[in-house]
Structures are given as structure tokens and as C-alpha cells.
Design a protein that fits this description.
The complex is a heterodimer of chains A (about 325) and B (about 100). Helix content of chain A is about 80%, strand content about 0%. Chain A has about 325 residues and is mostly helical. Chain B contains five helices and four strands; from the N terminus they run αβαβαββαα. The chains are: A mainly alpha (about 325), B alpha+beta (about 100).
């Protein structure tokens, strides 16, 4: 028995201060001193078994430690990778929203998919706009400009289609504007821009306009503002009725036997939340209709300039946002 | 259907709504802003509301049943149509033609 275990020899030589066993932890030392108390130089079966168990425990502990360190190392690599991805995405102007939000929203993947789709849309838009800019600078003919303008309008329709699909999935993500830069978010109305505000910006840039065009754009600015106000009023009534629904029956109602009424209340509130999607859809419909009407009022060349001016405005707003985020802070 | 035809032709502008419908609230607001004072019929307050809702749904095909807007006794559409007609100026013209507004 003694010759099968390499440790036995060592412990008979010196059992109180054992360098090998000592490195394996306190348990081992206790076991070693135990054995020295009982009978010097001799180890019974029990002690041997205990020593073997200790060695096994120490071996497992070392393995666990090794696995743990490996895991840490993997996490570190993953983190570096994520940081690099985030950096790349930032450079491309993509906004990645907080993971916390997405974990909580049911359409977490939908939100991510929409963000990706939207950044692709933006990329395509940049290309179109570069084309439009060079065509304008090269004094291209109306027919050539018309084709590009129609392309841009079709691209806007595509955006509203993408948004409508995304709203079915995660209406709060769209309303939050987390897919836009912070500065754009500051001007957000019902998940997008206010057409009436854009028209105000354009007025100076489209000179010279005929009397008729001037009136057309002014009218359009007014009608889109009226429609925006009307939709905002509807949203207010939605909030009010949601608050009324949620607060009804919370006072004085006994805690027991009200599960059914609580569930009924929640079902009603859910129904009301469901109409949020309709508001986003109508707001986008308003945006599209306003752009289309603007183009009907303007000449082809003016339309091209207007679309470019709108595009440049949003580009600058996004650039401003990046500068603001990167500003030095004390 | 009979009752809808009846009610919708009694005034130049008529809107069928539900008291709980917030988009209806938006469309009503828009009409008031334009200076029209449409007759409002809330389906959930009408004893024949259910039948009327069914008839309106059939009328608007893909549209929701409410809001349902009639101008000059003619069905114009729901929220989407109203916003579109408002932006291109044709809603105002329809309201003028039906003598719901004068200016």
C-alpha cells in the first residue's frame, strides 16, 4: 500500500511541515498534523483516504480556477469585440440602443431589425442625394431631375412602409426615437419630423417663387400644422383615457375578489395602447402627403432643391448630435 | 344602412365615431379647426350602433369602421383619407361645395 502512493514516503519523513501538501490548502495541513498527533511515522487507512480526498479536492479546485480564468479571458475578448463593433457602428452613424430597453420590450429583435433597416435606408438615401446634388450642380435637365426626385419620393414611401411594419412589432421603440440621434430625438413628433416645421425652413431656400407657389406652400404649411395639431389632440385624449382607465377603482376597492376587474382594466388599457400604432401610421401618412403636395406645388428643379435642403438639414442635425456627444467635458 | 343614409344626409358634414376612439377625436378636431361643425354620432351610444358599425365597415372596405366621415351625404372615408384630402386641399373644397363652410 505504501509504495503505491508517492506521497506516503514523504509524509513519513516529515509530516508536520509538508511543502507539497501545504500548497494544496489548509485541509491538507490539518490532516497532516492529525496524523502526527496519532502516531508518528505511521499512517492508517483512514488518513490515507483523507489525504487522497484532499488531493482530489485540491485538483478539482485548481481545475475550477483554471476554467474561471478562462471564462474571464473569454468575456474580456467578447467585450473588446463588442466595443469594436460599437465603434464601427458609431462611425457609420448607426445608433445602438440600450440593451436594457430591448430586453424588456417584447419586440427586442424587431427593434434591432428596424434599426438595421433604417440605417440601410439612410445609406441608400445618402447615395440618392449625392446623385441629386451632382445633377443640380451640373445643371441637368428637368427630365433627368424628375427621375431622381421620383426615386427619392419612392424611397420615402419605403421608409414609411418600414416604419409601419416596425410599429406593429414595437410601437414604443418607434415613439421613443431611439433609432435616431439625440438631437433629432429632441425635435421628434409622433415618431418622426413635423412637416410644418420643415416647410418653414424651406420657404427662404426656394426663391424665386411665383405668387401662386408662395400661396401653395403657405397653405400647405398651415394645413399640415392643422393636421399635426389634430393628431396631437387625439394623442392627448388617448393619454387621458389611458390614465382614467388605469386609475379607476384603485381607491377604496378591497384587495380580494378584484382580480377579474383588474384584468378587465388591463385589457381595456391594452386596447387603448393598441391605437398608438394608428397614430404613428397617420402621422407618417401626413408626412408623406405633405411631401407629395409640396412637389405638386413646386417645379421639378425647386423640388430637387427642396428635397436636398431637407436632407442637408437632417444631416447637419445628426452631425451636431455627434459633435455634442463627443464634446470635451470637465 | 338605412339609418346611416338617414343620419349622414341630415347635415352637410357628419362623422360617425365611438366615444372611446381617440383617432375620431383627432378628426373631429380637424373639422372644427376648418370651421365646420359636423354632426357627431357615437355608435356606442346608439341602440342600433352594432348594425351601423357593420354597415360602415362594409362601406369603407379596408378602413376601420370609425371615424367614418360623410360630406354632402357622401361617404368620404376614414382618418387616412381625411388627412390626405386635407393636405391636398380637396377636403376644404368638398366642405365648401356641401356648404359646410363658406370661406
Amino acid at each position: 500500500m505504501a509504495d503505491t502512493s508517492p506521497r506516503t514516503d514523504v509524509s513519513t519523513d516529515d509530516d508536520t511541515d509538508h511543502p507539497d501538501l501545504g500548497s494544496e490548502g489548509a485541509l491538507v495541513n490539518t490532516a497532516a498534523s492529525d496524523s502526527s498527533d496519532r502516531s508518528k511515522g505511521k499512517m492508517d487507512q483512514k488518513t490515507l483516504r483523507r489525504l487522497a480526498q484532499n488531493r482530489e479536492a485540491a485538483r478539482k479546485s485548481r481545475l475550477r480556477k483554471k476554467a474561471y480564468v478562462q471564462q474571464l479571458e473569454n468575456s474580456r475578448l467578447k467585450l473588446t469585440q463588442l466595443e469594436q463593433e460599437l465603434q464601427r457602428a458609431r462611425q457609420q452613424g448607426v445608433f445602438i440602443s440600450g440593451t436594457g430597453d430591448q430586453a424588456h420590450s417584447t419586440g427586442g429583435n424587431g427593434a434591432l431589425a428596424f434599426d438595421a433597416e433604417h440605417s440601410r435606408w439612410l445609406e441608400e438615401k445618402n447615395k440618392q442625394m449625392n446623385e441629386l446634388r451632382s445633377a443640380l450642380n451640373a445643371h441637368a435637365g428637368d427630365s433627368e431631375l424628375r427621375i431622381i426626385v421620383d426615386g427619392v419620393m419612392a424611397h420615402y414611401e419605403e421608409l414609411f412602409r418600414i416604419k409601419s411594419n416596425a410599429a406593429k412589432n414595437d410601437v414604443f421603440h418607434l415613439l421613443s426615437g431611439m433609432w435616431k440621434t439625440p438631437a433629432e430625438r429632441c425635435f421628434l413628433w409622433l415618431g418622426g419630423f413635423r412637416s410644418s416645421e420643415l416647410l418653414k425652413l424651406l420657404a427662404n431656400q426656394l426663391e424665386p417663387m411665383t405668387e401662386r407657389q408662395l400661396m401653395g406652400i403657405n397653405n400647405l404649411q398651415q394645413t399640415s400644422q392643422q393636421a399635426e395639431d389634430a393628431l396631437s389632440q387625439g394623442m392627448e385624449s388617448l393619454q387621458q383615457s389611458l390614465a382614467d382607465t388605469l386609475s379607476s377603482g384603485t381607491l377604496g376597492s378591497s384587495s380580494s375578489g378584484n382580480v377579474a376587474s383588474y384584468m378587465g382594466q388591463m385589457a381595456m388599457a391594452m386596447g387603448k395602447l393598441g391605437t398608438l400604432e394608428g397614430f404613428i401610421r397617420q402621422a407618417d401618412n401626413l408626412r408623406l402627403q405633405t411631401l407629395q403636395q409640396m412637389i405638386r406645388v413646386l417645379t421639378t428643379r425647386q423640388s430637387a432643391r427642396a428635397l436636398l435642403a431637407i436632407h442637408d438639414y437632417f444631416s447637419r442635425l445628426r452631425a451636431l448630435s455627434s459633435l455634442w456627444l463627443a464634446r470635451p467635458r470637465e | 344602412m338605412e339609418r346611416i343614409r338617414d343620419l349622414s344626409s341630415k347635415k352637410a358634414a357628419v362623422i360617425f365615431t365611438k366615444s372611446s376612439c381617440c383617432m375620431c377625436h383627432s378628426i373631429k378636431t380637424l373639422f372644427y379647426e376648418l370651421g365646420a361643425s359636423p354632426a357627431i354620432h357615437e355608435l356606442d351610444k346608439d341602440p342600433e350602433g352594432r348594425e351601423m358599425e357593420r354597415a360602415l365597415r362594409a362601406l369603407g372596405s379596408s378602413n376601420p369602421a370609425v371615424p367614418a366621415v360623410f360630406v354632402g351625404g357622401r361617404y368620404i372615408g376614414s382618418a387616412k383619407d381625411i388627412i390626405s384630402f386635407h393636405v391636398d386641399g380637396s377636403l376644404k373644397q368638398m366642405l365648401k361645395d356641401a356648404k359646410a363652410i363658406w370661406l
